[in-house]
Amino acid sequence: MRHDVFISGFGGQGVLLAGNLLSYAAVIEGKNVSFFPAYGVEKRGGAAMCTVVIADGEVGSPVIGSPSVSIVLNQASLDKYGSRVRPGGVCIINTSLVDTAGFDREDIEIIRLPMNDIAMQLGDARMVNMVAVGAYVAKTGAVSPASLTEALKDALPERNHRFIPANVKAIEAGAEQVNNQKA
Amino acid sequence: MSKRLFVKGNEAVAMAAIEAGCRYYFGYPITPQSDIPEYLSRELPRLGGEFIQAESEIASINMLLGASATGVRAMTSSSSPGISLKQEGISYMAGSELPGVIVNISRSGPGLGGIDASQADYFQAVKGGGHGGYHIIVLAPSSVQEMYDLTLLAFDLADIYRMPAMILADSVVGQMKEALVPHGRPDTLLPAKDWVVRGKGDGEQRVVKSLYLGDGELEAHNWKLHAKYRELKEKEERWEEFETEDAELVIAAFGSTARIAKTAIMMAREAGLKVGLLRPITLFPFPERAFAALTQRCKRILDVELNTGQMIEDVRLSIARDADVFFYGRPPGAGSLPTPEELLEQIRKYC
Amino acid sequence: MQQVFKRPVSLKDVQTHFCPGCHHGTIHRLVAEALDEYGVQQRTIGVASVGCSVFLYGYFDIDVVEAPHGRAAAVATGVKRARPDSFVFTYQGDGDLAAIGTAEIIHAANRGEDICVIFVNNTTYGMTGGQMAPTTLVGQKTSTSPYGRNQSKDGAPIRMAELLAQLKGVAFSARVAVNSPKNLMDAKKQIKKAFRYQVEGKGFSFIEALSACPTNWGMNPLQANERVGSEMTDYFKLGVFKNVENL
Ligand SMILES: Cc1ncc(C[n+]2csc(CCOP(=O)(O)OP(=O)(O)O)c2C)c(N)n1
Ligand code: SF4
Predict the structure, then answer these.
(1) Is the pLDDT of residue A43 over 50?
(2) Atom 5 (ligand 2) nearest CA
(3) What's C2's DSSP letter?
(4) In terms of C-beta density within 10 A (0-12 exposed, 13-18 middle, 19 or more buried), how is residue B326 classed?
(5) Spatial distance between the Cα atoms of B144 and A127, rounded to a whole number of angstroms
(6) Which of C216, C220, C222, C228 to mutate for ligand 2's pocket (most ligand atoms within 8 Å of CB)?
(7) Which chain B residue's Cα is nearest to C143?
(8) Which of C123, C131, C147, C153 to mutate to test the interface with B (most CBs of B within 10 A)?
(9) Beta strand A32-37 pairing with A90-94
(10) Last residue of some domain: B212, B235, B258?
């Protein structure tokens, strides 16, 4: 299997941490993975974006034109990357900050989740990235929830390990939303 | 098996340098390679080594020249504009037969250009970027693991052949993170460094230099250098072949572009197109024999580069005469990195 | 009534890319005001250096040449010799001028080139992400001096304004800051003096402007401004170090 995903938002939403977390989980599972952050000029203006490719075999290209999944955390990202999702792919959108009214692609599956609200209910809006990762993993099965939990130790600096239980909750909340929508 | 780490390509270079026994680093800040000096400024002092942020790239390459002349393993890294400034020193190192590792995480040019991934320094790297007609060893990693492996190799080859070795990569390979399994340096037999300056004591005088004024001296010196380049071609050509066995079209690409091409090839294979990849790992020596052998059976090569066509000249020189060579490339700059989908379109043109 | 915040004509009406609390913008403004003061905008050729100020041409409404990193003083020499009627200034950071460009600045100054140099000292390499600069204070942590600048290995921070003042070719050399209204007024005065030397064809003038880089100092704008007035001015004393004609 090969999973490729764009994660995008603005600086401070934990976009790069989300990408790192997925990657560490893949490493734990013995899979191949590449994590490629947009940097430099693209980084200016507070935008954050990364591409993660997870594969059992060769990763191949760390850069992708049209990903199978795009996780969109803010409006600017939808405007920039929404149209690039591969036909038949999935777009997971943070509707707390994104207006999807003008986004009417019928050739992809659109998952709308009020991620900020979900994170806020759990006590901290900063966990919006974890909600997103939970939703992504529930949708695609790219890595297992157990590896994600394990990977939090690698992805978070030691001083933040005390937040791991809260982050696990946020991941589960994201996953649950997707599973409920499926059911 | 040692633990699989998850690190940036640039960090893998720095880790491998330390593993190779390099304890001396000289550099000057420039994007997108700053992770290397930042890592080494933290680690080298703990290991009793020296990290110097020099006043310029010119100073740092000459610090490398000096350290190498005493026999230690030493390194410098930079990106394109800085590598241009190092060319004088590299020429002197080549002329003085000094080992030393130079890392170029190249960016787009010419001039100040931009900071995006680029393969436009190919000519400069493989054709002897400074004056006087010389070559250096040039290795082109295309993964984080290879950033590590080839850095280890660069130190060994530099010592064996007594010449500078360059890692030529770009921000895709330098900035991306992948799994890395670090390992010790292979126990390659290295020649004794019986030429290093050390203070002669009661021994013979030794001089490290590139000036030869005596009748016939410089010619002889150049023939000696030339013989090493030939030996490199015989012994050290390295490349990777991917799905070439039954390929009717083979993509020639190195470094980051080869990675992008791989996905394009997987997509093409799914569509039933017989496409493969020949990826030079050593850019100097260029894997001429691999291309010659391949084009005995495959008659179409699509050379892909992140520039307007440089390596293609070496591809053309290497192939059997009756193969066609096509080109696809884009000059580097913001937004010009090709995607696998884009390369697939190119593949379709020639299949 | 006097209009205080009028935009100098030499400055374009655009938003700059500088980080909040960065002093580059203020220094740009002072330079533009001095250009206006002498009415030289139309014949000015600016030489941009490589650093956060590389987009000089985006903010100044003047002709600009972009110099390779560190070479602005040499490029300015070429411009001024070829077009002696033009007003020529360089605008350089501390990495640019005091590290890679040391040879060029010393020799341009020593030849007494009839140019003005604006040297922005923020004790770090701003554009490349906060590495150690020749002006980084002893003990200051940067991304390439993670244990703090070590004087015995990295040397002491270089005081360019004093160093250049010793050269015969230099007509005027001063260090200014823009962290307080008082310093700002003084900076304005000194920059005008520096420019007057060139307007009157009297030689090389040098302004070192202390500048805040909150982003790479890991400070908020207020703290960064504070640091300029304390730690920085303790080591980099404000003042005029040379003024041959006592303008
Ligand atoms: C030859 C060369 N080496 C390195 C660089 C990378 N580089 C870009 S800006 C810069 C220095 C920035 O620092 P400074 O001059 O202090 O200006 P600031 O950004 O702080 O205003 C460097 C080293 C370059 N462009 N060219
Ligand atoms: S990085 Fe520093 S010098 Fe550059 S714009 Fe920001 S505050 Fe100013």
Answers:
(1) no
(2) C18
(3) -
(4) middle
(5) 30
(6) C216
(7) B38
(8) C131
(9) unpaired
(10) B235
Cα(C41) to centroid(ligand 1), Å: 27
- CB-CB neighbors (< 8 A) of A64 in chain B: 263, 339-340
C-alpha B113/C-alpha B108 separation (Å) is 5
Sheet holding C239-243, edge to edge: C63-66, C44-48, C87-93, C116-121, C204-210, C170-177, C239-243
What is the rounded CA–CA span in Å between residue A17 and residue A128?
Answer: 11
Q: Which residues pair with B252 in a beta bridge?
A: B278, B303
Task: Identify whether residues B258 and B160 lie together within a single domain.
Answer: no
**Contact between B206 and B200 (Cβ < 8 Å):** yes
Single out the residue of C200, C196, C207, C123 nearest to residue C165, CA to CA: C207
Q: Which residue of A has its CA nearest to B6?
A: A24
Gap from C67 CA to chain B (nearest CA, Å): 9
Neighbours of A164 (CB within 10 A): 14
Q: What is the pLDDT of residue C94?
A: 98
Q: Does B347 touch chain A (CB under 8 A)?
A: no
Q: Give the CA angle between residues B118, B122, B125 to the nearest 5°.
A: 120
- For chain C, positions 205-234, list CB contacts with chain B under 8 A: none
What is the rounded average pLDDT of the residues C96-123? Answer: 98
- Say whether residue B240 is in contact with chain A using an 8 A CB cutoff: no
Q: What is the pLDDT of residue A42?
A: 44
Measure the CA–CA gap between C245 and C172, rounded to whole angstroms: 9
pLDDT band for A1, please (50, 70, 90 cuts).
confident
Where does the pLDDT of residue C6 fall: very low under 50, low under 70, confident under 90, or very high at 90 and above? confident
One domain for residues B244 and B302: yes
> pLDDT tens-digit profile of B130-188?
999 999 999 999 999 999 999 999 999 999 999 999 999 999 999 999 999 999 999 99
Tokens 């019986």 belong to B194
The domain tally of chain B equals 2
Q: In what order do the strands lie in the sheet with B275-280?
A: B239-242, B275-280, B249-252, B300-305, B324-329
Topology (CATH) of C24-246? Rossmann fold (3.40.50)
Range of the domain at B30: 5-196+224-235
pLDDT at A46: 79
